Protein backbone atom coordinates (compact mmCIF):
# COMPACT_ATOMS: atom_id res chain seq x y z
CA UNK A 1 0.00 0.00 0.00
CA UNK A 2 1.03 3.56 -0.68
CA UNK A 3 1.39 5.90 2.28
CA UNK A 4 0.10 9.44 1.68
CA UNK A 5 0.79 11.95 4.48
CA UNK A 6 -1.75 14.19 2.70
CA UNK A 7 -3.45 14.04 -0.66
CA UNK A 8 -1.92 16.11 -3.48
CA UNK A 9 -3.71 19.10 -5.02
CA UNK A 10 -6.66 18.38 -7.30
CA UNK A 11 -7.40 19.86 -10.74
CA UNK A 12 -10.19 19.34 -13.24
CA UNK A 13 -9.67 18.84 -16.96
CA UNK A 14 -12.62 19.21 -19.35
CA UNK A 15 -12.26 17.94 -22.92
CA UNK A 16 -14.17 19.48 -25.83
CA UNK A 17 -13.37 17.24 -28.82
CA UNK A 18 -14.46 19.30 -31.85
CA UNK A 19 -12.34 21.38 -34.24
CA UNK A 20 -13.17 23.21 -37.46
CA UNK A 21 -10.54 21.06 -39.18
CA UNK A 22 -8.20 18.36 -37.89
CA UNK A 23 -4.57 19.49 -38.15
CA UNK A 24 -2.28 16.97 -39.90
CA UNK A 25 0.14 16.85 -36.92
CA UNK A 26 -2.50 16.48 -34.20
CA UNK A 27 -2.80 13.20 -32.30
CA UNK A 28 -5.22 14.54 -29.67
CA UNK A 29 -8.77 13.22 -29.47
CA UNK A 30 -10.31 15.79 -31.81
CA UNK A 31 -12.97 15.50 -34.49
CA UNK A 32 -13.93 17.80 -37.33
CA UNK A 33 -17.17 19.54 -36.48
CA UNK A 34 -20.30 19.12 -38.56
CA UNK A 35 -22.50 22.12 -39.35
CA UNK A 36 -23.92 22.05 -35.82
CA UNK A 37 -22.09 20.98 -32.68
CA UNK A 38 -24.41 19.36 -30.08
CA UNK A 39 -23.11 21.65 -27.35
CA UNK A 40 -26.19 21.48 -25.10
CA UNK A 41 -26.20 17.67 -25.11
CA UNK A 42 -22.45 17.52 -24.66
CA UNK A 43 -22.51 19.91 -21.68
CA UNK A 44 -25.24 17.77 -20.11
CA UNK A 45 -23.07 14.68 -20.65
CA UNK A 46 -20.09 16.47 -19.04
CA UNK A 47 -22.19 17.29 -15.99
CA UNK A 48 -23.36 13.68 -15.63
CA UNK A 49 -19.77 12.51 -16.11
CA UNK A 50 -18.65 14.80 -13.28
CA UNK A 51 -21.49 13.66 -11.01
CA UNK A 52 -20.42 10.04 -11.41
CA UNK A 53 -16.83 10.95 -10.52
CA UNK A 54 -17.71 12.94 -7.39
CA UNK A 55 -17.50 10.03 -4.92
CA UNK A 56 -13.81 9.67 -5.79
CA UNK A 57 -13.03 13.20 -4.55
CA UNK A 58 -15.53 13.90 -1.76
CA UNK A 59 -14.33 16.75 0.45
CA UNK A 60 -11.50 17.84 -1.85
CA UNK A 61 -11.23 21.32 -3.34
CA UNK A 62 -10.26 22.03 -6.93
CA UNK A 63 -7.17 24.21 -7.53
CA UNK A 64 -7.55 24.77 -11.29
CA UNK A 65 -9.79 24.01 -14.26
CA UNK A 66 -8.58 23.58 -17.84
CA UNK A 67 -11.04 23.40 -20.75
CA UNK A 68 -9.06 21.93 -23.63
CA UNK A 69 -9.62 20.22 -26.92
CA UNK A 70 -10.22 20.24 -29.72
CA UNK A 71 -11.29 23.89 -29.86
CA UNK A 72 -13.42 24.83 -26.84
CA UNK A 73 -13.85 28.37 -28.18
CA UNK A 74 -16.28 26.89 -30.72
CA UNK A 75 -18.75 26.63 -27.84
CA UNK A 76 -20.97 29.58 -26.99
CA UNK A 77 -20.50 31.71 -23.91
CA UNK A 78 -23.83 30.36 -22.64
CA UNK A 79 -22.58 26.76 -22.89
CA UNK A 80 -19.35 27.56 -21.03
CA UNK A 81 -21.36 29.43 -18.39
CA UNK A 82 -23.70 26.44 -17.97
CA UNK A 83 -20.73 24.12 -17.60
CA UNK A 84 -18.84 26.25 -15.07
CA UNK A 85 -21.99 26.96 -13.06
CA UNK A 86 -22.66 23.22 -12.82
CA UNK A 87 -19.07 22.59 -11.72
CA UNK A 88 -19.34 25.27 -9.00
CA UNK A 89 -22.55 23.67 -7.73
CA UNK A 90 -20.91 20.25 -7.38
CA UNK A 91 -17.30 20.86 -6.37
CA UNK A 92 -15.70 23.19 -3.83
CA UNK A 93 -13.38 25.56 -5.71
CA UNK A 94 -10.35 27.28 -4.20
CA UNK A 95 -10.47 31.09 -3.97
CA UNK A 96 -8.69 32.75 -6.90
CA UNK A 97 -9.13 29.63 -9.02
CA UNK A 98 -7.37 29.58 -12.40
CA UNK A 99 -9.79 28.62 -15.19
CA UNK A 100 -8.17 28.25 -18.62
CA UNK A 101 -9.95 27.90 -21.95
CA UNK A 102 -8.18 26.98 -25.19
CA UNK A 103 -8.98 29.00 -28.30
CA UNK A 104 -7.83 29.12 -31.91
CA UNK A 105 -7.59 32.38 -33.89
CA UNK A 106 -9.62 30.87 -36.71
CA UNK A 107 -12.49 30.00 -34.36
CA UNK A 108 -12.66 32.93 -31.95
CA UNK A 109 -15.42 35.50 -32.23
CA UNK A 110 -14.82 38.80 -30.45
CA UNK A 111 -18.22 38.89 -28.79
CA UNK A 112 -17.55 35.49 -27.19
CA UNK A 113 -14.58 36.75 -25.18
CA UNK A 114 -16.66 38.91 -22.83
CA UNK A 115 -19.09 36.01 -22.39
CA UNK A 116 -16.22 33.67 -21.50
CA UNK A 117 -14.95 36.17 -18.92
CA UNK A 118 -18.44 36.62 -17.47
CA UNK A 119 -18.74 32.84 -17.20
CA UNK A 120 -15.62 32.78 -15.01
CA UNK A 121 -12.79 31.99 -17.43
CA UNK A 122 -9.65 33.72 -16.10
CA UNK A 123 -7.07 32.62 -18.66
CA UNK A 124 -7.05 32.13 -22.45
CA UNK A 125 -4.62 29.90 -24.36
CA UNK A 126 -4.31 30.82 -28.05
CA UNK A 127 -3.08 28.19 -30.50
CA UNK A 128 -1.17 30.51 -32.84
CA UNK A 129 1.69 28.09 -33.75
CA UNK A 130 3.34 30.56 -36.16
CA UNK A 131 3.10 34.12 -37.49
CA UNK A 132 4.25 33.07 -40.96
CA UNK A 133 1.43 32.46 -43.45
CA UNK A 134 3.46 29.91 -45.42
CA UNK A 135 4.23 27.91 -42.26
CA UNK A 136 0.60 28.04 -41.15
CA UNK A 137 -0.51 26.65 -44.50
CA UNK A 138 2.07 23.86 -44.38
CA UNK A 139 0.81 22.66 -40.99
CA UNK A 140 -2.85 22.90 -41.96
CA UNK A 141 -3.94 25.77 -39.72
CA UNK A 142 -7.15 27.56 -40.72
CA UNK A 143 -6.04 31.06 -39.63
CA UNK A 144 -3.61 33.58 -41.09
CA UNK A 145 -0.91 35.57 -39.34
CA UNK A 146 -3.14 38.66 -39.51
CA UNK A 147 -5.99 36.75 -37.85
CA UNK A 148 -3.63 35.58 -35.10
CA UNK A 149 -2.57 39.15 -34.34
CA UNK A 150 -6.18 40.30 -34.40
CA UNK A 151 -7.17 37.54 -31.97
CA UNK A 152 -4.38 38.57 -29.59
CA UNK A 153 -5.58 42.18 -29.61
CA UNK A 154 -9.13 40.98 -28.95
CA UNK A 155 -7.97 38.96 -25.93
CA UNK A 156 -6.20 42.03 -24.55
CA UNK A 157 -9.18 44.28 -25.22
CA UNK A 158 -11.47 41.83 -23.42
CA UNK A 159 -9.43 42.39 -20.27
CA UNK A 160 -7.73 39.01 -19.86
CA UNK A 161 -4.62 39.64 -17.78
CA UNK A 162 -3.52 36.00 -17.93
CA UNK A 163 -3.14 34.40 -21.36
CA UNK A 164 -0.83 32.12 -23.29
CA UNK A 165 0.47 31.85 -26.83
CA UNK A 166 1.20 28.42 -28.28
CA UNK A 167 4.12 28.59 -30.71
CA UNK A 168 5.91 25.78 -32.57
CA UNK A 169 9.35 25.51 -34.10
CA UNK A 170 10.90 22.92 -36.39
CA UNK A 171 8.04 23.41 -38.86
CA UNK A 172 8.22 22.08 -42.43
CA UNK A 173 10.88 23.99 -44.39
CA UNK A 174 11.34 26.46 -41.52
CA UNK A 175 14.73 28.15 -41.09
CA UNK A 176 16.25 29.33 -37.79
CA UNK A 177 15.72 32.92 -38.94
CA UNK A 178 12.01 32.29 -39.47
CA UNK A 179 11.70 30.63 -36.07
CA UNK A 180 13.36 33.63 -34.42
CA UNK A 181 11.06 36.02 -36.29
CA UNK A 182 8.08 34.09 -34.87
CA UNK A 183 9.49 34.53 -31.36
CA UNK A 184 10.13 38.24 -31.87
CA UNK A 185 6.60 38.76 -33.14
CA UNK A 186 5.19 36.81 -30.20
CA UNK A 187 7.22 38.81 -27.66
CA UNK A 188 6.10 42.07 -29.25
CA UNK A 189 2.54 41.02 -28.34
CA UNK A 190 3.66 40.82 -24.67
CA UNK A 191 2.04 37.51 -23.70
CA UNK A 192 2.31 36.75 -19.97
CA UNK A 193 2.97 33.08 -20.87
CA UNK A 194 4.42 31.41 -23.94
CA UNK A 195 4.52 27.70 -24.82
CA UNK A 196 7.32 27.02 -27.30
CA UNK A 197 7.73 23.46 -28.50
CA UNK A 198 9.06 21.49 -31.42
CA UNK A 199 6.75 19.92 -33.99
CA UNK A 200 7.01 16.15 -33.74
CA UNK A 201 5.50 13.52 -36.02
CA UNK A 202 3.13 11.33 -34.03
CA UNK A 203 1.55 7.99 -35.00
CA UNK A 204 -2.00 8.01 -36.33
CA UNK A 205 -1.70 11.46 -37.89
CA UNK A 206 -1.74 12.58 -41.51
CA UNK A 207 1.85 13.78 -41.18
CA UNK A 208 2.83 10.29 -40.03
CA UNK A 209 1.27 8.79 -43.15
CA UNK A 210 2.74 11.48 -45.42
CA UNK A 211 5.70 13.06 -43.60
CA UNK A 212 6.61 16.62 -44.54
CA UNK A 213 10.21 17.73 -44.93
CA UNK A 214 11.25 18.92 -41.48
CA UNK A 215 14.46 20.75 -40.56
CA UNK A 216 17.48 18.62 -39.65
CA UNK A 217 18.01 17.94 -35.94
CA UNK A 218 20.94 20.36 -35.75
CA UNK A 219 18.84 23.14 -37.32
CA UNK A 220 15.99 22.50 -34.88
CA UNK A 221 18.44 22.58 -31.96
CA UNK A 222 19.77 25.92 -33.26
CA UNK A 223 16.21 27.26 -33.45
CA UNK A 224 15.52 26.21 -29.89
CA UNK A 225 18.70 27.70 -28.46
CA UNK A 226 18.46 31.00 -30.34
CA UNK A 227 14.81 31.41 -29.41
CA UNK A 228 15.62 30.62 -25.78
CA UNK A 229 18.25 33.36 -25.79
CA UNK A 230 15.75 35.89 -27.11
CA UNK A 231 13.12 34.91 -24.54
CA UNK A 232 15.59 35.11 -21.66
CA UNK A 233 16.73 38.59 -22.73
CA UNK A 234 13.10 39.74 -22.66
CA UNK A 235 12.60 38.53 -19.07
CA UNK A 236 10.73 35.31 -19.79
CA UNK A 237 11.80 32.49 -17.48
CA UNK A 238 11.63 28.81 -18.42
CA UNK A 239 9.90 26.75 -15.77
CA UNK A 240 9.26 23.61 -17.82
CA UNK A 241 10.76 22.08 -20.99
CA UNK A 242 8.42 24.01 -23.31
CA UNK A 243 6.91 26.69 -21.05
CA UNK A 244 8.08 30.27 -20.49
CA UNK A 245 6.41 32.88 -18.30
CA UNK A 246 6.75 36.35 -16.91
CA UNK A 247 7.03 36.63 -13.13
CA UNK A 248 4.01 35.03 -11.43
CA UNK A 249 2.38 33.93 -14.70
CA UNK A 250 3.17 30.20 -14.66
CA UNK A 251 0.21 28.00 -15.56
CA UNK A 252 -1.00 26.58 -12.24
CA UNK A 253 -2.92 23.78 -13.93
CA UNK A 254 0.16 22.53 -15.77
CA UNK A 255 2.31 22.84 -12.66
CA UNK A 256 -0.07 20.43 -10.96
CA UNK A 257 0.61 17.92 -13.75
CA UNK A 258 4.38 18.40 -13.49
CA UNK A 259 4.18 17.99 -9.69
CA UNK A 260 2.27 14.71 -10.15
CA UNK A 261 -0.87 16.15 -8.60
CA UNK A 262 -4.31 14.61 -8.98
CA UNK A 263 -6.88 15.52 -11.61
CA UNK A 264 -10.33 14.53 -12.66
CA UNK A 265 -10.92 14.29 -16.40
CA UNK A 266 -14.38 14.67 -17.89
CA UNK A 267 -15.27 14.58 -21.56
CA UNK A 268 -14.72 12.25 -24.50
CA UNK A 269 -11.31 10.59 -24.14
CA UNK A 270 -10.40 12.54 -20.98
CA UNK A 271 -7.89 11.00 -18.57
CA UNK A 272 -7.92 11.14 -14.77
CA UNK A 273 -5.40 10.33 -12.06
CA UNK A 274 -6.67 10.10 -8.48
CA UNK A 275 -4.87 9.18 -5.25
CA UNK A 276 -6.85 7.27 -2.64
CA UNK A 277 -5.41 7.47 0.88
CA UNK A 278 -7.88 4.95 2.35
CA UNK A 279 -6.97 2.26 -0.18
CA UNK A 280 -3.32 3.33 -0.40
CA UNK A 281 -3.46 3.47 -4.19
CA UNK A 282 -3.30 5.67 -7.27
CA UNK A 283 -5.81 4.96 -10.02
CA UNK A 284 -6.00 6.08 -13.62
CA UNK A 285 -9.07 5.99 -15.82
CA UNK A 286 -10.01 7.32 -19.22
CA UNK A 287 -13.35 7.88 -20.86
CA UNK A 288 -14.81 6.71 -24.18
CA UNK A 289 -13.08 8.59 -27.00
CA UNK A 290 -15.78 9.13 -29.62
CA UNK A 291 -18.04 12.04 -28.63
CA UNK A 292 -21.26 10.55 -30.02
CA UNK A 293 -20.78 7.26 -28.18
CA UNK A 294 -19.66 9.13 -25.04
CA UNK A 295 -22.89 11.17 -25.04
CA UNK A 296 -25.06 8.14 -25.72
CA UNK A 297 -23.53 6.26 -22.80
CA UNK A 298 -24.05 9.13 -20.37
CA UNK A 299 -27.45 10.37 -21.52
CA UNK A 300 -29.27 7.04 -21.78
CA UNK A 301 -30.57 7.44 -18.23
CA UNK A 302 -28.98 4.61 -16.25
CA UNK A 303 -26.37 4.85 -13.52
CA UNK A 304 -23.83 2.68 -15.29
CA UNK A 305 -20.18 3.44 -15.92
CA UNK A 306 -20.14 2.37 -19.54
CA UNK A 307 -18.48 5.65 -20.58
CA UNK A 308 -15.29 4.61 -18.78
CA UNK A 309 -13.09 2.97 -21.38
CA UNK A 310 -10.56 1.59 -18.91
CA UNK A 311 -9.55 1.89 -15.28
CA UNK A 312 -6.43 0.57 -13.62
CA UNK A 313 -4.44 0.83 -10.41
CA UNK A 314 -0.83 1.89 -10.85
CA UNK A 315 1.96 -0.39 -9.66
CA UNK A 316 4.97 1.04 -7.87
CA UNK A 317 7.20 0.91 -10.96
CA UNK A 318 4.56 2.78 -12.98
CA UNK A 319 4.29 5.46 -10.29
CA UNK A 320 8.05 6.06 -10.24
CA UNK A 321 8.14 6.39 -14.02
CA UNK A 322 5.09 8.64 -14.25
CA UNK A 323 6.34 10.93 -11.50
CA UNK A 324 9.70 11.34 -13.21
CA UNK A 325 8.11 11.80 -16.66
CA UNK A 326 6.39 14.84 -15.23
CA UNK A 327 8.73 16.27 -12.59
CA UNK A 328 11.90 15.97 -14.69
CA UNK A 329 10.38 18.39 -17.18
CA UNK A 330 10.65 21.17 -14.60
CA UNK A 331 13.55 23.54 -15.24
CA UNK A 332 14.31 23.98 -11.52
CA UNK A 333 13.61 20.36 -10.67
CA UNK A 334 11.55 19.34 -7.65
CA UNK A 335 11.92 19.13 -3.86
CA UNK A 336 12.98 15.70 -2.66
CA UNK A 337 9.98 15.76 -0.29
CA UNK A 338 7.60 15.97 -3.26
CA UNK A 339 8.27 12.39 -4.35
CA UNK A 340 7.02 10.64 -1.17
CA UNK A 341 4.27 13.21 -0.68
CA UNK A 342 2.71 12.71 -4.13
CA UNK A 343 3.58 9.07 -4.83
CA UNK A 344 3.14 7.49 -1.41
CA UNK A 345 6.51 5.77 -1.93
CA UNK A 346 9.86 6.35 -0.25
CA UNK A 347 12.48 8.10 -2.39
CA UNK A 348 14.53 4.90 -2.21
CA UNK A 349 12.08 3.41 -4.76
CA UNK A 350 13.72 5.63 -7.38
CA UNK A 351 17.26 5.56 -6.00
CA UNK A 352 18.90 3.07 -8.43
CA UNK A 353 17.78 5.08 -11.45
CA UNK A 354 18.66 8.38 -9.77
CA UNK A 355 22.19 7.14 -9.17
CA UNK A 356 22.54 6.17 -12.84
CA UNK A 357 21.15 9.53 -13.98
CA UNK A 358 23.55 11.39 -11.72
CA UNK A 359 26.52 9.35 -12.93
CA UNK A 360 25.60 10.16 -16.54
CA UNK A 361 25.37 13.87 -15.78
CA UNK A 362 21.63 13.99 -16.52
CA UNK A 363 20.57 15.22 -13.06
CA UNK A 364 22.11 17.01 -10.13
CA UNK A 365 20.84 16.83 -6.57
CA UNK A 366 21.39 17.76 -2.98
CA UNK A 367 19.45 17.00 0.19
CA UNK A 368 16.62 19.34 -0.81
CA UNK A 369 16.29 19.26 -4.60
CA UNK A 370 16.60 17.02 -7.64
CA UNK A 371 16.89 18.81 -10.98
CA UNK A 372 17.74 17.88 -14.55
CA UNK A 373 20.98 19.32 -15.87
CA UNK A 374 21.15 21.15 -19.21
CA UNK A 375 22.26 17.80 -20.67
CA UNK A 376 19.31 16.05 -19.01
CA UNK A 377 16.84 18.58 -20.40
CA UNK A 378 18.25 18.19 -23.90
CA UNK A 379 18.20 14.38 -23.72
CA UNK A 380 15.07 14.02 -21.61
CA UNK A 381 14.05 10.75 -23.27
CA UNK A 382 17.41 9.22 -22.31
CA UNK A 383 16.91 10.40 -18.74
CA UNK A 384 13.41 8.94 -18.50
CA UNK A 385 14.52 5.63 -20.01
CA UNK A 386 16.52 5.02 -16.83
CA UNK A 387 13.27 4.87 -14.87
CA UNK A 388 11.65 2.35 -17.20
CA UNK A 389 11.63 -1.38 -16.67
CA UNK A 390 11.15 -3.83 -19.51
CA UNK A 391 7.71 -4.63 -18.18
CA UNK A 392 6.52 -1.05 -17.69
CA UNK A 393 3.25 -0.64 -19.64
CA UNK A 394 4.33 2.54 -21.40
CA UNK A 395 1.26 2.57 -23.61
CA UNK A 396 -0.83 3.53 -20.57
CA UNK A 397 1.38 6.40 -19.43
CA UNK A 398 -0.47 9.66 -19.95
CA UNK A 399 1.44 12.90 -19.59
CA UNK A 400 -1.22 15.56 -19.97
CA UNK A 401 0.23 18.66 -21.63
CA UNK A 402 -1.82 21.76 -21.98
CA UNK A 403 -0.75 25.28 -22.39
Description:
With 403 residues, the protein is an alpha/beta fold. The protein folds into two domains: 10-257, Aldolase class I (TIM Barrel, Alpha-Beta Barrel), CATH 3.20.20; 315-390, Orthogonal Bundle (Arc Repressor Mutant, subunit A), CATH 1.10.10.920. It is built from 15 helices and 17 strands. The protein has helices at residues 39-53, 77-90, 110-119, 133-138, 145-157, 176-188, 206-209, 217-233, 252-258, 291-299, 316-327, 338-343, 351-359, 374-378, 380-385; strands at residues 10-16, 18-19, 31-32, 62-69, 93-103, 123-129, 162-169, 193-198, 237-240, 243-245, 262-266, 271-276, 281-287, 308-313, 334-335, 363-365, 369-372. Strands 9-10-8-7-6-5-4-1-11 form a nine-stranded mixed beta sheet, sandwiched between helices. The chain has a three-stranded antiparallel beta sheet with strand order 12-13-14, with no helix packed on it. A three-stranded antiparallel beta sheet has the order 15-17-16. α1 (39-53) packs parallel to α2 and α1 (39-53) packs across α10.
